[in-house]
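target protein:
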Amino acid sequence: MKVSVIIPTYNSEEYIENSLKSVLEQTFSDIEILIIDDCSCDNTVNIIKEHAKNDERIKLITLEKNCKQGFCRQKGIEEAKGEYITFLDSDDEYDLTFVEKMYGKITQDNADMTVCKFKTSDYQTGEITENHGYRNYTNVPEKLHNGFCADDLEPIAIFNTCNVIWDKIYKKSFLIEKDVRFPGGMYCEDDVFTIDAILKADKISVLNLPLVCYTINRPNATSIVYESVKNDCFKMFDLIENNLIKANLYEKYQIPFLKYKFFTAKYYYETISPEFKDEFNQKYHETMNRHKETLMTHFSKNFDDNVFYGELKTFYGIN
């Protein structure tokens, strides 16, 4: 088995048909399709089972309790038989040549992982956009497309990139040997996994083609998502920090990581439901206050980002 495609599902009856079809009709057929259902209570599982009757490449795993996407994806890695692994969200779609081209590129370059471009599909309007403004690792200089590692990048680039997991193909042995894992039971797990993978990979290559269609502007399920994100982004920060410390990289990446932490928390604060803002803002200040001396000392002596320094002074109430 060459490639395992891992798809977590949860109440996906509205869009799983198109997502699954984009995998079943791939031009590269030596794949298995691992679908891990996170206790759906709609018709998702029945739709998958109907497709599985006609295609033995589909393997459905149903969880006994809701564990969120990270657990589903990690379960998929553990069950995967393929030499290489890809991920797809249940409301997104692959280009029909995604697996063929990504497998060809990663094996040609003997890379640990390969990244491609992606398009966006607006759920509300149906508009598909290639020049959407999301920045991923295809933005590295062209001379690096056949192979780069974290040391080839500016430290800030690792944290201001769209660190999704479904625009990449991974060598399974790399994930296992380097212990790159998804945290379970939380949202915001993509950044934990991807940043760890980027820092641990010896070789990453780029396929400069838009091969995934990412759905945007889909209505959020419930305010429960906001409640979970409110708490889980702080778990995410702690996990990333712990990974940096374990790899003896915290000192090297401390300042870009703290900038990432500041702006990511600010983004969540601006987007969560109003009833959660006060509690979130308290946690936001608590977590950033731990770094006040480090940040203010650095930016008072290094004039590399005066705009951010100004934001910090406002945040900390310094005139």
Remarks:
- The mean pLDDT is 94.
- The CA atoms of residues 28 and 100 lie 5 Å apart.
- The longest strand covers residues 204-216.
- DSSP finds eleven helices and nine strands in the chain.
